[in-house]
């Protein structure tokens, strides 16, 4: 929505809208305009005007639509207390060593966890080489289910 709104402003284009229109109703004419090639100015009309530098720190006004003000809060990742910096450093070193060994043909990619580099992964993916150890598999599933909500 923000990109189309910026393009509309740069091209000097106006679209009819009612205060009660939903975001979808506001977007429909903008999308048709975009799919039609941004007529009448075309792509050239979307370029920023060099005479008037854009104000990147513009304050929001009452004229801004309520739909453009809404941004959902980012989801926070759960942090595990047992995973301290020492473990993470060892994990990074193990992963780097695994990548180095695989690139030098000293080991096979299927023999190591793709996430942490530990030997003997327990789960494998049918579409690509490699797998995950039990700890990394559990972490992945926890995050996967958390973001599935």
Automatic annotation (TrEMBL):
<dbReference type="GO" id="GO:0008168">
    <property type="term" value="F:methyltransferase activity"/>
</dbReference>
<keyword id="KW-0808">Transferase</keyword>
<keyword id="KW-0489">Methyltransferase</keyword>
<dbReference type="InterPro" id="IPR040552">
    <property type="entry name" value="DNMT3_ADD_GATA1-like"/>
</dbReference>
<protein>
    <submittedName>
        <fullName>DNA-methyltransferase 3 beta</fullName>
    </submittedName>
</protein>
<dbReference type="GO" id="GO:0032259">
    <property type="term" value="P:methylation"/>
</dbReference>
<dbReference type="Pfam" id="PF17980">
    <property type="entry name" value="ADD_DNMT3"/>
</dbReference>
<feature type="domain" description="DNMT3 cysteine rich ADD">
    <location>
        <begin position="94"/>
        <end position="149"/>
    </location>
</feature>
<feature type="compositionally biased region" description="Basic and acidic residues">
    <location>
        <begin position="53"/>
        <end position="63"/>
    </location>
</feature>
<feature type="compositionally biased region" description="Basic and acidic residues">
    <location>
        <begin position="85"/>
        <end position="95"/>
    </location>
</feature>
<feature type="region of interest" description="Disordered">
    <location>
        <begin position="1"/>
        <end position="97"/>
    </location>
</feature>
């Amino acid at each position: 929505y923000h990109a189309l709104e910026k393009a509309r402003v740069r091209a000097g284009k106006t679209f009819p809208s009612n205060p009660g229109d939903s975001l979808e109703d506001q977007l429909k004419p903008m999308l048709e305009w975009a799919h039609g090639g941004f007529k009448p100015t075309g792509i050239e009309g979307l370029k920023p005007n060099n005479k008037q530098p854009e104000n990147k720190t513009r304050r929001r006004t009452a004229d801004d639509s309520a739909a453009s003000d809404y941004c959902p809060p980012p989801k926070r990742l759960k942090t595990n207390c047992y995973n301290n910096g020492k473990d993470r450093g060892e994990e990074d070193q193990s992963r780097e060593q695994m990548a180095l060994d695989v690139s030098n043909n000293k080991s096979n990619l299927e023999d190591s966890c793709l996430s942490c580099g530990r030997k003997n992964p327990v789960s494998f993916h049918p579409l690509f080489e490699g797998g995950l150890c039990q700890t990394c598999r559990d972490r992945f599933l926890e995050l996967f289910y958390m973001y599935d909500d």
